[in-house]
Write a structure and sequence with these properties.
Mean pLDDT: 76
Helix content: over 70%
Largest sheet: none
Length: 101
């Protein structure tokens, strides 16, 4: 006796893999934001860009919806790191204010 039809089992498996992908990208983004070296951040940005451009994915792009979510996570990681690098450089280039007495 089947509890769920086969299509429901496939959907549940895809949702489970999707949840794991989202969790991985959230953890990676949190770790990346704590990194102080801009060179490491640039390397992580390069890896996330390669992941988006690569034909190999955790969830194949042929599966409409969940297949694109892992790519969106990589894009979000790329954008988050770019914002972090921008903020780092913006804070470093701030002129030192001298106290006048």
């Amino acid at each position: 006796m089947k509890f769920l039809p086969d299509s429901w089992l496939v959907l549940l498996a895809c949702l489970a893999v999707l949840a794991v992908c989202v969790l991985i990208f959230v953890v990676v983004l949190k770790i990346a934001m704590k990194i102080r070296s801009w060179k490491v951040k640039l390397a992580a940005m390069g890896l996330s860009a390669l992941y988006v451009l690569s034909p190999l994915d955790l969830i194949p792009d042929a599966i409409i919806g969940p297949g694109q979510i892992d790519d969106l996570g990589a894009i979000a990681t790329f954008i988050g790191l770019a914002i972090s690098i921008y903020k780092d450089f913006k804070n470093k280039k701030k002129p030192q204010q001298t106290q006048q007495q």
